[in-house]
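Please review this one:
***
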Amino acid sequence: MLRDWIAPLALEGFLEGYLHRSAWAQPASATAAIPLLDWEILGRVLAATNPPPDVIVCAQGKKLDLPPPRDLTEMRAYLRIGVGLCMRHTQRCDAILGRVAAGFERDLPGSVQVQIFVTPGGTHGFGWHYDIEDVFIAQTVGIKDYYFRENTVEKLAPFPPRDFFGFQAETAPLQTATLVPGDFLYIPSKWWHMAVCREDALSISVGVVPGANVAPHPKA
């Protein structure tokens, strides 16, 4: 799966040139991911019960104390009021997303989880933050502007931090990438990032924590 998303760059070239080193965006290399996550597939994941998805309801950088939607009708109601979702461990809820996880597990050592982001147009889900895992993003619906920069102030700090206020002291150059369906973005572990949607958007975000038997920490 990863090999497809980074083509024509070979996996060895990605490992040597980018993994744990630098963010990298590439247009149109993840077009094969578009049919892996559309509104119909999202509806199946929302309705999954054995197990159900692990859902964070969020808007404008805040986690909201709202019940997860159970179908597309409820999801669209949330989108209309500017509320989105981060759905974690979705590879457990859908066979297609399970194959995404399996593909990454073949290419990279570590613990893999597949997340779905559902974000209303004109909003963002999480504010500036960083993750312990390396993040591999395929945009499948809508347009999303991603902002990211190296973490030079908390790179060696224990994870998770108490908060992400350290970003205010960051001086590393700001980088950006606009993703449309089929585009790919890699963000290294502990790099600062956030995203703003231009229109209702869906994206697959694969998190890989290096090392065996290490589970990704929930996002803040």
